[in-house]
Known about the structure:
Layout: H1 11-32, H2 47-70, H3 75-89, H4 97-114, H5 119-139, H6 155-159, H7 163-239, H8 244-269, H9 291-300, E1 304-310, H10 318-339, E2 343-349, E3 355-362, H11 378-388, E4 392-397, E5 403-410
Parallel strand pairs: 1-2
Antiparallel strand pairs: 2-3, 3-5, 4-5
Keywords: ATP-binding, Kinase, Membrane, Nucleotide-binding, Phosphoprotein, Transferase, Transmembrane, Transmembrane helix, Two-component regulatory system
Enzyme class: transferase
GO molecular function: kinase activity
Amino acid sequence: METAHIWWKDPTLWMQVVIQLLVTTLYLSAGSDITGFNRAAFYDIPVFAQWVLEGFGWISIVALNLGLILQRWYSHAGLWVIFISLIVFVFSPWIAIPIGYLVVCHQSWFIAAYIHRGRKAWLITLVVGSIVGMFVSTLFPGVVLPVKDPTQPRLTEFFDSHAALFGSLMGIVQAIVSIALFWNIGLVTRRRNERYQMLKDHAEMSAVVERNRIAREIHDVIAHCLTVIIAQADGGRFAGKKDPAQALDALATISQVGRNALTEVRTLLSVLGASTHDERSLSTTPGLDAIRDLIRETERAGAQVNYRILGEPRDVTEIVGLSIFRILQETLTNALKHAGAVPIDITMDWTNPTLLHISVLNDAGTGLVDKPRTPGRGLIGLEERAKLHGGTAEITTDHDNRWCVMVTLPI
């Protein structure tokens, strides 16, 4: 069982403590009113031996309660403490069967529910130990030790009757049936915990996937936006001296691209908010219809884009349309960053009824930014998008030493 971060704030712990104290108090109160085989002073043995036997009882009761608490954090250590305590308890002058029966039932449930290693061995120990402990606690000290008052009835008289065999068999049957019952209850608890853990792991994995998706989306939006802004700013700076109108166009493009990026980032980040007045909307999610605008932005940044469509475009789901847009956005962004204003050929091949083939080729050139010291996430994200839909992505160079990105997506 898992350790609580702040153990004393766990309400189930205090509930367990209260229940154990109540059961222990009732047992001790009932035992003090029972005459017969429940106190060492009843037997004709030295005082020191009486103290030892009484000590067995008190130590066992305390150790049993501590072992049950210890199991919450150290399951195997708690089992061993309880096991040893029960062995000592059966040799005490107290009637061990009532409290032993409750502990064995609880341990049967606990082992089935929370123990992963050695469950079968512990089950055998429960069954055999219950049978042996029942006989030992009955024989000792009631039959083995001499009593002070010979007129008191002895357990030997009980064993001479025919009821002894029947009572022993019924005790064994009751112990086995109880262990089996609580073992099955423990298995139900175990399956419930495993299902809860599976749902918890699934939720955590979903959260990780969603965070990665948002990070990938933000990367694509910001990378494309900054690349276009850098290209327009550089072009406007040089054109401003000779053609102020072209410089103003560059500034207008920078403004528009920045606003579009800001809108998309706000939409993506809105899913992280917890406000009850959430006004987020997916209506701005780009898809196939936004590809033309993406190409125009790239052309205004200085690149020469040749966009071809083969076959008849078909309707796709929103998520597939977004992935197609992001794939093209990433390839165009990489072309501008690492090759600059070079010709870019884009082909969208819809001729296959079940597959969409996307190819993007660009010449080598001088990039707008310095080569990064560490690899970026853009191309990794591109491959992840393709795999997300069961497709493939291949990034290589062709025979003319042009950068080539080939993506295949099921549709």
